Amino acid sequence: MRMDLQYFAEGGQEKTETATPKKREDTRKKGQVAKSNDVNTAVILLVVFILLFVYAAVPGQFMHDLFIEMYINYAGMSFSIENVMALFFDLIFEIAIVLVPILIAALFAGVVSSMLQVGVLFAPEAIKPKLSKINPLKGIKRIFSARAIVELVKAFLKIVLVGLVAFGILGIYVDELLQLALMDVVEGFHLVAWLTGVIGIACALLLLLLSVPDYVYQRYDHEKQIRMSKQEVKDEHKKMEGDPQIKAKRRQRAKDVAMQRMMQEVPKADVVITNPTHYAVGLQYDGEVMAAPTVIAKGADYTALRMRQIAELNEVPIVENKPLARGLHDGTDIGQEVPEDLFRAVAEVLAYVYRIGGEL
Q: H helices of the chain, where?
């Protein structure tokens, strides 16, 4: 029943058509792309924990120096607002030196993982504030929607699997952990740090593996969301073709360009056959490259007048032959050879033109 209501709400048009390139571009500009946040999370965790393996000596040394400085220098410091503020800013600065490389690595990993999924994308419309996002009714619908249930199941599955991996690794090193109380501080710190890194990388690899089907599902769901009805596809094609007046202007412009090109061919004609006022046809014949005379220009009324004027300016012979002019105009296209049934009449005209030209 719910699907029927949605179907009629959309005008009775079922969305069965694959999205057009324009629809994909429009949705991309709105920030609606196929993207899995699980991929970002997994890649960030993997990069951060790998960096910690390489970078672990720095925070370890920092904590060691910090404890020494606290017990030696800070323990005897008088309690005052100035001393507390100085201590606070000093600690903030030293902590920032340690954490900034890790934060930069996490930021870089997040950007790269997003670009691998959606490419370079800047969609300011996606971050515009929308009142619908704070609507309590829509919020409740989102909480109890099918997508929310799927996300809940995914989160529960990830927690269970990550917990199994973590406890599995701890179980392997349970003997070393039981001896942790007998180790000195540095050795114990190294063991805990190493186990933390191993667990982190193992869990990140697990999440990365789990993110693959999620990414596939997100692409499928995105394609489903942007599907179009047949009417939407037709409307988009009409919109892309443009306004009828604009199309008429384009056709007229193309016609003018074609007319100009045709007029440039008139001076090359051997003869222009006229009606004499309504039609004009320009013929060219070169026995070495042409099997028959060819129509290189034709027109009626104003076009015919312009052809006669250009022919006169370029001293191209003009021959009046009403039936032949009408037959060539109606029976041939520009660039086409003269039809066989008009060969005799055209040959007579050309012979006359060549004879007149020879006498001149």
A: 2-9, 21-29, 37-55, 57-69, 81-118, 136-143, 146-172, 174-178, 185-225, 230-241, 244-265, 302-313, 322-331, 343-359
Could you tell me the two tokens for 170? 């701890």
Decide if 262 contacts 299 (C-beta within 8 A).
yes
Hunting for tokens 């507390």 — which residue is that?
Answer: 84
DSSP annotation of 18: P
Evaluated on CA atoms 234, 240, 246, 248, the torsion sign reads: negative
Phi-psi region of 335 (alpha: psi -120 to 50; beta: other; left: phi over 0): left
d(CA 281, CA 273): 5
Site of tokens 């996606």: 126
For residue 35, the 8-state DSSP code is -
The pLDDT tens digits of the residues spanning 167-195 come to 998 888 888 888 887 888 778 877 887 88
As assigned by CATH, the class of the 265-359 domain is alpha beta
Token representation of residue 234? 């037709």
Predicted TM-score (pTM) of this structure? 0.52
pLDDT in tens, 326-354: 888 888 888 888 887 887 888 888 888 78
Domain extents in the chain: 36-121+135-227, 265-359
Tokens at 110, concatenated: 């997040």
Sheet strands side by side (includes 279-284): 294-300, 279-284, 271-274, 318-320
Cβ–Cβ contacts within 10 Å for residue 109, how many? 21
DSSP code at position 120: S
* CA–CA gap between residue 303 and residue 155 (Å, rounded): 76
For Cα atoms 324, 329, 334, give the angle at the middle one, nearest 5 degrees.
125
Q: Are 228 and 19 in contact (CB under 8 A)?
A: yes
Look at residue 292 and give its three-state secondary structure: coil
